[in-house]
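Ticket #4471: structure output looks truncated?

Reporter: J.K.
Steps to reproduce: submitted the chain below (193 residues) through the standard prediction queue, then opened the result file.
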Amino acid sequence: MKRREALTLWERLYLPQIVGGLVIIIYRFWRNLALHALHAVGLFRDTVAAVTVQYPEQHKRYPDNFRGSHRLTLKEDGSVRCTSCFLCATACPAHCIFIEAGEHPDPAVEKFPLRYEIDTLRCIYCGMCVEACPCDAIRMDTYVHPKIWGYHRADFIEPKEVLMGRSTTIAQRGRDALLDDLLAGYREAEKAP
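Returned output as attached by the reporter:
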């Protein structure tokens, strides 16, 4: 058994670590403040002042493995790929997926979702629904963070049409179009009285 070494009095006070941390914080604060001031007058433009994204002028590009908002994938004919097997709703630890199955008008297809809703206030964005889906009907590859504003609980429930619309937008305009649409929605919400 390994013997634990006793801490000295100086180490038990934690003073060196506290002072060292404060020195780092104060140094970075004044360095970034000075660089931002120099950038404002046109000096040292090639030196980066801070590692934060200067939002809203700059946007962070999400990595390829980012779990964004959900979307329902579509078949070649534009219909939803979901077969209402309820595996995603069963696998969801937050119980935020609601599916109402119905008979499909095409006799070759057994059933499809009449309603497919995700309560984003309850969702923990774990990705279990994506892993459970046997037909690749639901994905979280939208590169869009969840909507963060609303006045009623219903504002945060995403119906089937919204989830399918994200797939259509990605297919027609690319992955960055969803973020552009989300930001445009925020701007319109700010203008509304």
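Triage note (M.O.): checked the attachment and the full token line is present. The mean pLDDT is 87.
Status: closed, working as intended.
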